[in-house]
Design goal:
single chain; mainly alpha; 10 helices
Length: about 200
């Protein structure tokens, strides 16, 4: 378990769609927003683990049509977020605070981001089952649930650090309408790149 936890921490540190998403949201909306996004991502991971244990993940991966649909859903959602980010103008930020999101919206973004990420499905399918000890008295399904919980804990630690660090950008730049607009545009660019990455190297 300890070796798996160390491996999970290393995996969480490696730049990927989820931690880049946390970085973008924390820099744009602040560390509290980033933490809510992380909770949403972890909820998504929990659901992904449940789907893995139920065998649904394997069905999705082995079905070209289902996997392509999931890719398209993820890309469309990211492009929607990019469109919203590119719409932000400095004057809009100054006058109406149009870029603000409710805590529920921030949390929901994290959930949808993870559930529509086909690479998350592939990763958990490749990462959790090999770590199961077939000689253990604990049922393999229960082991995967425990390993999934451990992975979620590692994500909370690493992504929480990312959110806290990126929050400093918002502290210093978020109060400036022009800087806030630039942060939103930078987030939009990240979303576009993430959307493209869903179809690359899979």
């Amino acid at each position: 378990m300890f070796q798996f936890f160390l491996a999970a921490l290393i995996v969480a540190v490696v730049p990927g769609p989820d931690n880049l998403f946390v970085l973008a949201q924390s820099a744009t909306f602040g560390r509290k927003a980033g933490l809510r996004v992380i909770l949403g991502l972890c909820t998504g991971i929990g659901i992904q683990v449940a789907l893995l244990v139920a065998g649904v993940s394997a069905i999705i991966v082995n079905s070209p049509v289902a996997f392509f649909v999931l890719q398209c859903c993820g890309a469309v959602y990211l492009l929607y977020l990019a469109f919203r980010s590119f719409q932000v103008r400095a004057s809009a930020v100054k006058v109406s605070g149009a870029v603000s999101l409710s805590p529920k919206q921030q949390y929901t973004r994290g959930v949808i981001m993870n559930l529509t990420n086909p690479k998350a499905v592939l990763f958990l399918l490749a990462f959790l089952p090999p770590a199961v000890d077939m000689k253990s008295s604990m049922a393999p399904a229960l082991q995967m649930v425990c390993l999934g919980a451990l992975f979620i804990f590692s994500v909370l630690i690493v992504f929480g650090a990312v959110a806290f660090a990126a929050g400093f950008l918002n502290d210093y730049l978020g109060k400036s309408p022009k800087a806030n607009r630039n942060l939103n545009w930078a987030s939009g660019a990240i979303f576009v790149l993430l959307a493209v990455s869903l179809f690359v190297a899979i």
